Amino acid sequence: MKNKVAVIGAGIAGISSAMYLAERGLSVKLFESANNIGGRMSSFADTEIGELLDLGQHIMIGAYVNFFNLLKKLGTKDLLYQQKKFKVRFLMNSDKIITFEQKFFNDNIGFILGLFLLKGVGLKSKFKMANLISKIIHQKIRKSGLSCQEFLLLHKQENDLIKLFWEPFIIATMNAQLNDAPADILINILYEIFSNGFSKAKIVIPKTELLNLISPVEKYLSDRNCELCLNHRLKRIEIRNGKVATLTINDFCYDDFDAVILAIPPDSLKQIGRLSNLNIFLELVNNFRTSSIITVYLWLDKEITTEKFIGLVDSPLHWLFNIKRISGEITEKHKLYKYAIVISSADKYAKLTREQTLQMCLDELMRFFPNFSTENVINWKVLNYKKATVLLTPQNLHFRATAVTEYENLFLAGDWTSTGLPATIEGAVRSGETAARCVINYLSMC
Ligand SMILES: Cc1cc2nc3c(=O)[nH]c(=O)nc-3n(C[C@H](O)[C@H](O)[C@H](O)COP(=O)(O)OP(=O)(O)OC[C@H]3O[C@@H](n4cnc5c(N)ncnc54)[C@H](O)[C@@H]3O)c2cc1C
Predict the structure, then answer these.
(1) How many angstroms separate the alpha carbon of residue 431 from the centre of ligand 1?
(2) Cα of 294 to ligand 1 centre, how many Å?
(3) Is the pTM for the entire model greater than 0.90?
């Protein structure tokens, strides 16, 4: 008889676990409390706007190898826009633009040449950055328990490159300010990028809504005799003799699963812990706060930049995405230009109303784009995702959960678990595969 595995949560971590196990012939049921898959990496039909909208604009880099592999299996990898080589442009103000790109070569040398040819940055800063990156590549830097701010200071990084490179990079990848973000994660990311010849730094952006990337998963599972169950909420876990004995999902009690993966965020785990009297979960997740991300969608009657995406320096707004350019849909037919403006690590704007957030965006856009006026705005939507990611800090890194728990047939996955990566899509996918491997290992020993 096939082993039966329950995966709880059809975010990208749960999807990754379920696919991994289904491919290896296990009987998997993927339970999701919502009426759709994808969790935070998903989209919703906005009735006001009349469009499918992402819960937030997502950006990736070439290092998302496991995620790209997952999309390849689902047949949707082509729905990503991928840079040929790394290039990011920053607007300093309305008439100064700085381009940070690989020059001549598509590797680390191309990056170093790009760094030294960068305009508006001192030579000393460039040498210090090159020196730090060289130390990271050659693994000469030990894990330190420092924040990114302390780490950059220790390695004498200068303000111009902190503002232009380090700060945007750290805030975007870790959804945290420099004084919170853990340097040990930064080192891991940079090592992964640079030890692979910098090709993994290329920017990747979905050309379509996130839900379209993952929607074939239901068929993928059913083709392998596995099942996706939407609107199925795990309420309670009963432990007997150190193992999961039953799962209460909606109002039904299941007692026939050989192993269980919980691919849910800390908040949900806490709730289940409380209802199931599992103090271990409560202790574990109490170490994590969350950090918000704001996405402001604007529909304009004119194109204010032809860039696919651009960073805004010294602004509360971090990135502007030109959605029609990314999707390649710029034709005469499209009279409206859709933009997504992203503010990461946005807790300090929590008290702003949607209208105030919109106003802040419009003021900034007028400052950066003289050809923009509020009259160009045909429609708008402000999405403030309060619990976008866990806030990882040097203090809570070692509390990130491992896939294996003290209950022998219960495993954990999710972007917040111990992946060595920030709480991102790629971290979530890897955590899902790790938990699935642990399940297979456990079942092979039973
Ligand atoms: C606005 C925003 C912008 C982001 N930008 C980026 C970005 O640019 N790049 C990037 O890499 N990452 C980004 N992220 C982070 C990324 O989306 C997450 O890291 C990733 O989606 C987390 O996946 P997950 O499967 O671990 O968790 P989730 O997506 O949270 O999935 C958990 C699932 O479990 C379900 N669930 C919870 N409780 C139960 C229960 N009791 N029973 C059954 N089901 C349950 C939930 O409904 C959910 O579907 C962003 C996130 C947000 C919100």
Answers:
(1) 13
(2) 15
(3) yes
